Amino acid sequence: MAITINSTRENDNDQTVLFSIDYDGDKKWHGDIPKDADPQEFLDAKEDTLKVEILRKQYPEADVPQLEDKTALESFEAWIAGGAKNAEITKTITTPAQPAVDAVLGERQKTVEGEEEVTTTEIVEQDGKMVRKEVTKTVVTNTPETKEVPLFDEAGEEIGTTTVPVMESYEVSPAVKAVKKKTETVVVRPESVVEKTPWKDTVE
């Protein structure tokens, strides 16, 4: 007999059964079953399920395909016989086509970069005394650029000049090239061998 009852313990709502199962060596295990069930009959009826659970504990990372016309246990045993390998998983990614997009241009006032000397008053310590002194620094400035243009009255007569900003075009967003529809297959999970975890007996 593949399953041997070692001991039972009654609980409030069920019973805990400690048993040995002869599957790939003798293994000691335990489980809770209905209080009114016969332990031997109950576990014998679930022998294949118990064996699958044993394999799940020994191969926790297993990804076992269910084979047609095979039980869960037969499928798991076939997976082990085939090298205990998780199959490669791939995914098809489709990048949709994108039309070309022209650059978007804007207009802004030009600036002129220059240098300016700025004098500030600072209080510093010199020779143990607090001294107020003027400090001159050269700073970089960006001054909006303007130009003088003729100014006319409503009759079209020139009456002087006026100052207007000098404008320039700039790229708000760059042009985008057209993209063709692209379909590619990528590996989500490579094929891998699942290592077997040693069985740990239930200690009474």
Cα radius of gyration in angstroms:
42 Å
Work out the helix count.
Answer: 3
Strands in their spatial order, largest beta sheet: 1-2-3
Residue-averaged pLDDT, rounded?
94
List keywords for this structure.
mainly beta, three-stranded antiparallel beta sheet, elongated, 3 helices, 204 residues, two-stranded antiparallel sheet, 2 domains
Could you characterize the architecture of this molecule?
The structure is a single chain. The chain has 204 residues and is mainly β. The chain has a 3-stranded antiparallel sheet, covered by helices on one side. Strand 1 and strand 2 form a beta hairpin. The mean pLDDT is 94. 14% of the residues lie in helices and 51% in strands. It is elongated. The chain contains 3 helices and 13 strands; from the N terminus they run βββαααββββββββββ. The protein folds into 2 domains: 3-89, no CATH class; 104-172, no CATH class.
Question: How do the helices and strands line up, and which of them pair or pack?
Answer:
Layout: E1 3-10, E2 14-22, E3 26-34, H1 39-45, H2 47-58, H3 72-81, E4 85-86, E5 89-95, E6 104-109, E7 111-126, E8 129-144, E9 146-152, E10 158-165, E11 167-173, E12 182-189, E13 192-193
Antiparallel strand pairs: 1-2, 2-3, 4-13, 5-12, 6-11, 7-8, 9-10
Summarize the structure.
With 204 residues, this protein is mostly beta strands. It is 14% helix and 51% strand.
